[in-house]
Amino acid sequence: MEHIKIDLALDKTTLIPEKQQTAYLMIKLTAPEQVVESRPAQNLSFVIDRSGSMHGEKLDYTKKAVSFAVGHLDSQDHCSVVAFDDLVSLVVPSHKVENKDALKMAVKSIYSGSTTNLSGGLLMGFREVKLAYREKQINRVLLLTDGMANVGITDHDKLVAKARELAAGGVSLSTFGLGEDFEEDLLQAMAEAGGGNFYYIEAPEQIPGIFEQELSGLLSIAAQNLTVRVKPGSGVTVTGVLGYPFTSDNSINVSLPDIYNGETKILIMELSISPHSEGSHDLLNLELDYTDVRKNLALINLKAGLKVNFSTNSEEGPVENLEVIKQVELFRCAQVKEEAIWLADRGDYVGSRQVLQSRLNNIQAFNQMVCDSEINLEIEELKENLSFMSEIGYNKTSRKKMSYNAYRQRTGRGNRQQ
């Protein structure tokens, strides 16, 4: 059975000898596009906000989406359903999915209530997943809300820490934010700490499709617990990682979310390279550890290295690797959008427009060299961001769209919100 493929490349094909320089490393991880007869067992808890604001279409579509998901589970899977407003109700305790009709009827019976005890719902969902927890399956809580946490634990840092604690215990968390009143920064941070996905749902009718997207991913997970360790060679320092948090000791360590069959994840690192003599030098070594879901959760360790030529032979200097530069440009766009949001939240619309315009100018100049469809989409999106970046145009919905697109771009998840 194939392993994850590792490709390493710099933004330049050669480096200049005897010179201090900055380079960008692209780490590309590609899971095999493999159709398997069996899939990993699922142990899921659907945690549904039923506060007063969910009344009507929102709750109706949510119940329809959960019923759809249940229809794709079978007797090897476990499922529970939790509903919360100011109180938390265990609608369906964790059990094997054998009587789907009864489960769907229980979901249908959920009604709307009052305030939002998000932490209470999350903790009960976590408890139910833990009751049926086994290592050799997918253990995940799926949390959907349209509002702010205003009952129970409401402190953002504590909620994120709780999500991180869930993940450390083997239970991941995906979050779904619906409408314009939920706290996108909180739900994004919880999903990232919880090792799952965050989704922005602008309209109720989108709920079933987005649940399907999450479930399709869960049913096609190729590997979990991915950890990339990069050990720089002599005279090489990693000065930054674009898109993901990292830790450092003797190496740079980055944890990545689950990877699906056929999916590619890209990681960009900024390197500071001290003067090297002419010739070929080992720049760095990489190790990838992960749990292979297709191999009964076997622990896999892969190694790769990057050797680079330092040369003055080319009259025009080092040849640029446009694929790597493109990924750097796209990551920079995500960072700038987050900076623009930070400035706009503080009323500095002029500063926000300035950073967006500067990034737009840079990526337009780059696109003159490559004429790339993905870059063209990014240019149009930056123009749209500029169009609403004012006291009148910047509102809850435009902020959520911009934040969600930056999140998906930064974490390599694609599928921008249009």
Structure at a glance:
The protein is α+β, with helices and mostly antiparallel strands and 418 residues long. It has ten helices and 16 strands. The protein has three domains: 109 residues, Sandwich (Immunoglobulin-like); 178 residues, 3-Layer(aba) Sandwich (Rossmann fold), CATH 3.40.50.410; 89 residues.
Strand portion:
25-35%
Q: Could you state the order of secondary-structure elements as H and E?
A: EEEHEEHHEHEHEHEEEEEEEEHHHH
Q: What's the CATH architecture of the largest domain?
A: 3-Layer(aba) Sandwich
Total domains: 3
- What is the overall pLDDT average? 88
Instruction: Assign an overall shape.
Output: globular
Furnish the topology, listing elements before pairings.
Blueprint: E1 5-10, E2 21-30, E3 42-49, H1 57-71, E4 78-84, E5 88-96, H2 100-108, H3 118-131, E6 138-145, H4 156-168, E7 172-178, H5 184-193, E8 195-201, H6 207-219, E9 221-232, E10 236-242, E11 247-248, E12 252-256, E13 259-260, E14 264-273, E15 279-292, E16 298-310, H7 322-345, H8 349-370, H9 373-387, H10 396-410
Parallel strand pairs: 3-4, 3-6, 6-7, 7-8
Antiparallel strand pairs: 1-2, 2-14, 4-5, 9-12, 9-13, 9-15, 10-14, 11-12, 15-16
Question: Can you give a write-up of this model?
Answer:
- The protein starts with a strand and ends in an 8-residue tail after the last helix.
- It has helices at residues 57-71, 100-108, 118-131, 156-168, 184-193, 207-219, 322-345, 349-370, 373-387, 396-410; strands at residues 5-10, 21-30, 42-49, 78-84, 88-96, 138-145, 172-178, 195-201, 221-232, 236-242, 247-248, 252-256, 259-260, 264-273, 279-292, 298-310.
- The longest helix is centred in the C-terminal third of the chain and has 24 residues, at 322-345.
- The chain folds into 3 domains: 5-28 and 226-310, Immunoglobulin-like; 42-219, Rossmann fold; 322-410.
- Helix 7 (322-345) runs parallel beside helix 9.
- 42% of the residues are buried.
- It is an alpha+beta fold.
- Helices cover 36% and strands 30% of the residues.
- A 6-stranded mixed β-sheet has the order 5-4-3-6-7-8, with helices on both faces. Strands 9, 11, 12, 13, 15 and 16 form a 6-stranded antiparallel β-sheet that branches. The chain has a 4-stranded antiparallel β-sheet with strand order 1-2-14-10, covered by helices on one side.
- The model has no long low-confidence stretch (mean pLDDT 88).
- The radius of gyration is 23 Å and the shape is globular.
